[in-house]
Amino acid sequence: MQEFLSGHGVRLLAVPGVLVPVLTVLTVLYPQTPWEALAGLVLAPLGAGEVAQRHEDLKTATALVTSLDEL
Question: Would you give the distance in Å from CA 5 to the centre of its chain?
Fold first, then answer.
């Protein structure tokens, strides 16, 4: 668990950092909309960003183990 927290600390802090202000604004603008639906709208781009980050990490790791002869 400690390894997960140290490796993903910024991502874990980003969720409430994005969720709270956006949900606050959206609940003021659209008070009849359930907060769960608004939370899904806010968290979807974070999930897409996570997928993109993992893809970039994989490319970096692959580049680190590739020798110049293989290029």
Answer: 14
Closest CA relative to residue 18, chosen from 42, 40, 52, 35: 42
Query: In the chain, what is the straight-line distance between the N-terminal and C-terminal CA atoms, in Å?
Result: 38
- What is the reported pLDDT for 64? 86
SS (H, E, C) the chain: CHHHHHHCHHHHHHHHHHHHHHHHHHHHHCCCCCHHHHHHHHHHHHHHHHHHHHHHHHHHHHHHHCCHHHC
Length of the chain: 71
- The answer to whether 46 and 22 have CB atoms below 8 angstroms apart is no
**Would the pTM of this model clear 0.70, i.e. be above it?**
no
